[in-house]
């Protein structure tokens, strides 16, 4: 069995949406072949290296500063006792949760945007993170009532997880009409987003001042006081969900050609659509349960990944790794550059809000 590599230049047909595919490489091993672009491989590799370096820098920043070499030596088990305590016990859980949360949000955003064929389709716009906010705020604010006591007994992370899953179930149920349509999914999501915001504001008006302050910190999205328990729970969830999300990539590629073409190619359309949305919702639910609804990560990074790879739809692996890099660098900046240690969601919102406005203006100019 021999392996051959063919480089195709200018002969690759355009992908859906009319964008030329550009230079591609076809690898053949016997009767099995696969085609990929160099940039689709280089970008995830570079993004992974950047995430590792950013995590090492983040682990070294704080009241007890350490160099990158000291951090890497400590992670390898050769550091001093004080360095191991600072790196492994105090800083590593926060950094690891940030990396995993960014990975989950990036993957979820790529799944939603590819499925809906809309760069605005993200968990923030579709109401899933708002559902998590409702659950968390209810657990914090309504602890005196019977329903609130039940949520409070679950804990804020589990209440947020429940809220995100309920919002995802409502999104799925209300958007389903013998299948899922991307345009209807976004419209239903915007309605859920508005309803979730209104319900969260109502709960905050009933809260005591100290409960409202705690709720505001959570709904902003924060990595403060993360523990190994939270990192382990999120890591176990992603061990299951990330392979499922990557496996959905092939189905998503077929779905871009339209429902009729997908059916003609043998795709079970309803089950494939449902699987993509369910995996995306579970990724968001796991992320918000660990760190709160960190804003706009799932909106920004898939579009950045598209431009870096030169593709025609958000690449899943690159989007996840870029999401991890964005959350890690935002957390590093809030702890070391800004005058006060702010929740990481404030910085991502400051970046994402102008980007959302730019997307809206760009879309208006395109359709004009």
UniProtKB/TrEMBL annotation:
Sections of the chain in a coiled coil: none
Transmembrane parts of this sequence: 41-60, 96-116, 128-150, 156-176, 234-255, 275-300, 342-361
Gene Ontology BP terms: siderophore-iron import into cell
Compartment(s): Cell membrane
Record keywords: Cell membrane, Membrane, Transmembrane, Transmembrane helix, Transport
GO MF terms, alphabetically ordered: transmembrane transporter activity
SUPFAM superfamilies: ABC transporter involved in vitamin B12 uptake, BtuC
Presence of keyword Membrane: yes
Membrane topology: Multi-pass membrane protein
Entry's family note: Belongs to the binding-protein-dependent transport system permease family. FecCD subfamily.
Name of the protein: Iron complex transport system permease protein
Organism of origin: Geodermatophilus obscurus
